[in-house]
Amino acid sequence: xxxxxxxxxxxxxxxxxxxxxxxxxxxxxxxxxxxxxxxxxxxxxxxxxxxxxxxxxxxxxxxxxxxxxxxxxxxxxxxxxxxxxxxxxxxxxxxxxxxxxxxxx
Length: 105
Known about the structure:
This protein has 105 residues and is mainly alpha-helical. Helices cover 79% and strands 4% of the residues. Strand 1 and strand 2 form a beta hairpin.
């Protein structure tokens, strides 16, 4: 990829981000006050974080991978089901991931 192509892609991305921001500002206020829109806006960050976590955990170079990271996410899920505090959830995920990697996984 040559530098000109990269700069064109960056410019198009900047323009696209600006247009999305502008469209958000043009939405009428009464539309944003609807209960459905408020619920969706509250759930959107959670959905995006879950999607990013899944993508970073279960993929490598475009392929599905089940390795120590998946075990760590599983341990975190169990800790969450047991209603553990956030730091305990993170510690469980770290410990299980490190343990699986130490065992060669």
